[in-house]
Each structure stands twice: as structure tokens, then as C-alpha cells.
Amino acid sequence: MIPWTLLDRAILPNSQEEIRLYQRGDEFAIRVANYELMNSRVHGSEEALAELALAKLAGRAPLRVLIGGLGLGYTLAAALRGLDSRGEAIVAELVPAVVQWNRGPLAPLAGRPLDDPRTRIVEADVFRVIRETRAGFDAILLDVDTGPRALTHEDNRRLYDAAGLRAAHDALRPRGVLAIWSGAPDPAFARRLRDAGFATEEVRARARGEGGKAHYIVWLAQRS
Fold it and tell me: 83-88: long-range contacts at Cβ-Cβ below 8 A with a sequence spacing of 24 or more?
């Protein structure tokens, strides 16, 4: 078997943890500590995050979408496919190295979505962008960490607590959609979504690649 090669590493802001980019043949992976955050061979649920959210906004245009976490670019690429020529996809990515990787070795994976003129990168914490916005987005797509549970970065918890969900609710336009990726179900989190004023649907999303055996959760929370 071809061994993994470490291509680059960076320190996560406000942490001593490293985020690392690996390559094995034509496969790429991003890892923090001993946890693999994402892999280019299994990315269907990342695309589903955008596709499911924008399907709830069908007929509404132009759309302004906020994406929390650039990752390997698949969520951004899927969001762009759902926007018309006037739409805008704002990506809040806290780690500058991840943006550099997506302009470099990762660029071909999702079709170079950073080159699309509808894309705008904000090198900032997505929580800050949400908190500073009122009724500014039609959709917020969060693929941050592993979801609401088993976080690799403690700062991400504030996205998923009651105050963070209320901030997301306020940042959305009427009938806007908050879509959240998770590695596992979480009934307590689903209740928090409802308590924050969202009509909530939980969807099982199949991974693409490796036979598509793995399933993940996408919560679709729509502002009333």
C-alpha cells in the first residue's frame, strides 16, 4: 500500500493542535491530532449539506450563502452549483493554510471553486461572522469539526450551544436554512435547534466513495 505523505501543517488558532494535510496517490486527507476530519475519497455528505439546504430554497434568488469551513472544497462547489449568476457564497475559514491548500494541491478535487467569481473568502471564525450579521443570509452551512459532539477544537462548541443557535437564527433571512453536518445523531442537539425557533429535519446522508458505506447526519433547520 502507498504510504501517506505529509504535505503541510499549521497550528490551529487559539490552540496548540496541528492541522495537517496528507496525500497518498491521488487521495488527500486533513487531520487534527489522530482524527481524520475529511478525506477526498469520501465526500458525498459534504455535498449533500449544500444540496439539501438549497433545495429548501428552490425558486428563491439571488441567494446569499455562508459556509463555515472550507475543508476540501466540496461543500462550496455544491453550493455554487445551486446558485444563479447573481448568487454569492461566502466561506469563513479560520485557518489560512486551508485556503492555501485549496488554491494549491487540493484545487482540482472539487473543480477549483475558489476561482469562481461568486466565491468570497473571509479568513475569520464563522461564529464571529454569524454573530455580527442580522438577517443577512439565506442559508448557513456548517461543516465545522465533527459536528456538535466529540469536538476536536473546544472553541467550536459555541456554534452548537443555545446562544450560538439563536445567533444563527438571527443571521438568517425569513425562511432561511441552517444546515449542519455531523458524524453522528444527537437528540439533545435536535431539541436545541427546535428551542432556538427552527423547524427541524434530520437527514441521513450517504458518503460518496469507498462504496458509500458510511452514513452521516445533516440537520436542516429552517427559520420560521
Answer: 83/54, 83/118, 85/118, 86/61, 86/62, 87/61, 87/62, 87/63, 87/118, 88/62, 88/63, 88/64, 88/118, 88/120
pLDDT over 50 at 210, yes or no: no
Asked if residue 65 is part of any domain, the answer here is: yes
In a domain, 66, yes or no: yes
Is 11 a domain residue? no
How far apart (Å, rounded) are the C-alpha atoms in residues 69 and 119? 13
pLDDT score of 161? 92
**CATH code of the domain covering residue 54:** 3.40.50.150
pLDDT digits (tens, 9 = 90+) for 82-95: 999 999 999 999 99
**pLDDT at position 15:** 81
